[in-house]
Amino acid sequence: MLNMPRPRLLSVVLIALLLAAVAVLWWGFPDLRPAWVGPAANDGATVREGASGKSGDKPKYSGGRPGNKDMGDSTGKPTPVSTDLVKRMDMVVNVQALGTMTAMNTAIVRSQVDGVLKSLRFTEGQQVQAGQLLAEIDARAFEAQLNLALGQLARDNAQLLNAQLDLQRYQDLLKKDAIARQQVETQAALVAQLQGTVQADQANVDAAKLQLSYTRVTAPISGRLGLKQAELGSLVRASDPSGLVSITQTQPMAVVFAVPEMHVPLIMRKLKSGQALPVQAWDRERKQRLASGRVNTTDNAIDVTTGTLKLKASLDNRDGQLFPNQFAQIELQLDTLKNTLVVPSASVQRGAQGSMVLVIQADSTVNAVPVQLLSAQDDWQAVQSDALKEGDSVVTDGADRLRSGSKVEVVKAAKP
Q1: Model confidence over 404-416: pLDDT tens digits?
Q2: Euclidean distance between CA atoms 359 and 405, whole angstroms
């Protein structure tokens, strides 16, 4: 140690002094030891006194969490719980999904001719019927084109009539051998030519009438109008992408939603057999029912990214509460479970080993019974279990403090 550096020598001396002080305190003052440390080896009198003390003395709790043989609360009293009864009833098998409202048909009303917008005969947001007049285009130019076509038709009709009379006279002269056959044939060809001209004139008249009819813009389908896209006096063209106004057919309204592919076989069986698949649309909070209807058709392929199949249903929208692109909570009724076993939804406990309910035994203890969940409706859950029967009392409130074998006291029980 003489060759040890001075700082290191001081450190060794300080550590030795510290250990000596701890030893003195440990053996000289046993009352200062922590509570979790047992008695010293030389404190045998204390141990024997605790083992063979007076009969009236109770052994003191020496640490650790207090336990309860009946698994009730920490004071040994039964745990207060609320219960309800297991029943049998008809349960509806529903599938929940998020749906998007779409119009059955959507049309953009466009002018089919170019012209000045003369009048608008609708109100934005109005319900209209197919064929109803919506707007008028200045028709003067189209009326002039119609008159021109009618004039050409009248002129060519007169020429045709004259050629037909000449042909009749030539044919009479040919019978008397008073005219050459070539002249008769030439006149017959002229009549045929004029007949073609009259037909072309008639087509021009029809086209002019059609163009004139386009100046009266009518609704192509029945539905609700949107906001107008053109103002009075503006020049509208047939090529305008926004058109004059849009119409959406919202009665009935269509809704598109996706269901897991596990339900597809049952859905297809019901659709092919003509059975109805009822659908209800609810608001986002599932507090108000918006509309009801039935499934019409399905998509032609399952989405591989989500494992779902899209369904399309029609909903009654007579009150006009539904709008295209509106989101809604969709409830699809797939089937009905007849006289099935049901428990209160509040009684179902979910854990790592699956779902279970706590059944009250005759000795006021609980027994954890595994169940298989089938379908939920309102406050009831349909289950399947061999160990559960109708009339069993299950815990609905206070189950978080219990496990199988816990002692309970029923403070609120459901009426049979």
Answers
A1: 888 888 886 666 5
A2: 10
